[in-house]
UniProtKB/TrEMBL annotation:
Recorded coiled-coil stretches: none
Name of the protein in its database record: Phosphatidylglycerophosphatase gep4 mitochondrial
GO MF, any single term: phosphatidylglycerophosphatase activity
Species name: Pseudogymnoascus verrucosus
Amino acid sequence: MVDLRTFNLSGTLSALSLLFRPSQCIPQAVVRNFNDLPLPLSRAFDNDKRFGKVNIRAVVLDKDDCFARPGENEIAPEFKAQFTRLRAAYPHPSMLIVSNTAGTPSMDPDLTSSALLAAATSVPVLAHRTKKPGCSAEIMAYFHSHAELRDLKPEEVAIVGDRLATDVVLANRMGAYAVWVREGVVAKEEKSLFARWEYGIHDWLKKRGVQSPVPGSPFE
Ligand SMILES: [Mg+2]
């Protein structure tokens, strides 16, 4: 039986499309965990010469199993100091939390979680109708609504998250840069089956030479 609250149509369609375009689930950078994110974030992409000079002006952060335990609306204690550094590097309105739980109509209909999360992090939480990876228009509309980011291009956005099928596919569809946080807060053996499959899929594709798309490239 499919639980309609947690069922993610956008995510399911994305999983199917990956069969045909596997590069969509390859991130432009990989870090071990949230504490290993380099600052500024553009440094994460230094090793791939295809990208040229990367200028990250805005950051989208996933919540669950990225900087917080799933189901909690606070920064995990081990990531608090790093979170503060990241927020200082990307001051308002350049950082936005986009979660498939907090801020979605099915999981957070009265936006209680998103209000708690915004209060705990001092970062806005996007209320969005379409779950990741389908919400790129809502994300760009948020950034473009602020004068200092009115001219922001997708390739000036970094999306940080722990899931290939949602966070990384979102970035690649948008033409943004993805940073995959390989180890979140939860131990590997406690992760969902889908999350555990992603390690194997990623490593299998990489071994076969599948590369991430080049953000902003008209040829992708
Ligand atoms: Mg997550």
